[in-house]
C-alpha cells in the first residue's frame, strides 16, 4: 500500500463525488445502489445515510451483519462529521504519520473510528450535508462499496476513481 498514492486518489474521490442536490430521493437512490452492489458482490454490510442534523434517510442491514456494525457506523460517521473527509482518508493520513486519532487529536476510539466506510455527502459548492456509511467487510472494501455506489448514482467513471 502506497500512502501517497492512496491519499491523492482519496482526495480526488472527494472532489469528484459531489451532488448538485441531495434530498430524500437521492438518498434512497444512493442507498439502493450500494445495496445492489453489496448483494451482487455477496457482501454482508450495514448501509446508513443520514443528514448532518441526524435525520436518517436510508438504512439497511444485509445477512452477515450484527449489532456491532451499528457501532462501527456511528464511529466512522463521527470521523466524517468532525474532519469533513472520508473516514478512510483520515485513517490513511494518520497511519502515514504513524499516529492515531486519540494521540493526534485527543478523540476517543470509543466514538471515532478512522477505518474505511464513511464518506462525506457534499454538494458541488463543497458544503457537507450528510454522511454515507458502510460497515461489515474489511475497511478498504467498505470504502470501495461507497465509492462504487456514488459513482453509479453520479455517473462517474469508477475505474478512474477507484483505489488500486
TrEMBL record:
SUPFAM superfamilies: GlcG-like. NCBIfam families: PRK02487.1-5 (NF002696). This is UPF0303 protein DC3_44980. Belongs to the UPF0303 family. It comes from Deinococcus cellulosilyticus (strain DSM 18568 / NBRC 106333 / KACC 11606 / 5516J-15). Pfam families: HbpS-like.
Amino acid at each position: 500500500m502506497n500512502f501517497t498514492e492512496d491519499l491523492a486518489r482519496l482526495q480526488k474521490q472527494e472532489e469528484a463525488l459531489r451532488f448538485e442536490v441531495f434530498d430524500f430521493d437521492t438518498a434512497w437512490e444512493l442507498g439502493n445502489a450500494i445495496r445492489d452492489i453489496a448483494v451482487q458482490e455477496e457482501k454482508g454490510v450495514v448501509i446508513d445515510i443520514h443528514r448532518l442534523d441526524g435525520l436518517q434517510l436510508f438504512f439497511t442491514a444485509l445477512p452477515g451483519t450484527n449489532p456491532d456494525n451499528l457501532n462501527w457506523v456511528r464511529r466512522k460517521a463521527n470521523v466524517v462529521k468532525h474532519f469533513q473527509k472520508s473516514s478512510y482518508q483520515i485513517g490513511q493520513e494518520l497511519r502515514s504519520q504513524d499516529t492515531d486519532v486519540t494521540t493526534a487529536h485527543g478523540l476517543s476510539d470509543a466514538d471515532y473510528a478512522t477505518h474505511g466506510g464513511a464518506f462525506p455527502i457534499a454538494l458541488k459548492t463543497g458544503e457537507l450535508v450528510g454522511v454515507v456509511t458502510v460497515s461489515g467487510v474489511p475497511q478498504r472494501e467498505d470504502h470501495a462499496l461507497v465509492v462504487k455506489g456514488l459513482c453509479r448514482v453520479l455517473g462517474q467513471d469508477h475505474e478512474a476513481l477507484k483505489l488500486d
